[in-house]
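Note to self: the last two entries modelled the partners one at a time, which told us nothing about the interface. This time every component goes in together.
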Amino acid sequence: MTRKKPDIDRVFHALGDPTRRAMVEKLSHGPISVSRLAEPLDITLAAVVQHLQVLEECGVVQTEKLGRVRTCSLAPGGLAVVERWISARRSIWERRLDRLGDLLAGEVED
Amino acid sequence: MTRKKPDIDRVFHALGDPTRRAMVEKLSHGPISVSRLAEPLDITLAAVVQHLQVLEECGVVQTEKLGRVRTCSLAPGGLAVVERWISARRSIWERRLDRLGDLLAGEVED
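The predicted structure of the combined assembly is written out below.
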């Protein structure tokens, strides 16, 4: 089982591609083989493998070879690095809006 | 005031760069001028303007020129497109884990 440490630059880069997002969407329903992952995608198997490598390198996806079949799955916490970054920005932003709201309420009361 | 529609491919791409993420982090504390945004960044003003354009094009940042000063701010909902995508993946994934948990609990009871 290959498992890389999530790297925020590379995770954002990897998810900027619609094919790779489609692969992550598919994998969020559960682990599947590379060939089943490739089925609905209108690209060559070689291209699927390349996209898979990008997702594996940045820690979003993990793959495991059992006999002749390579199975892919979402790596636990692989998307967390991006999720945490986004929610930290939102919470700072929302606290700022709350303070602005308090200020405006104060002005109305004055 | 320039305001672009958020585009998920381009938002992910834009946030894959550490300088652009640092700019978004700074702007989450409130609107500031381009020169103040550039201050802590160890790059030329021209490079800052280029990064700003990328963030503006994908709808994460908006800028407004008042007199001779251009002020930048986070565009409302600019990060939401990415946040929604991530949380949709997580909720599908968590439902799957819940079902697995139920299945395992059922097996223990049997």
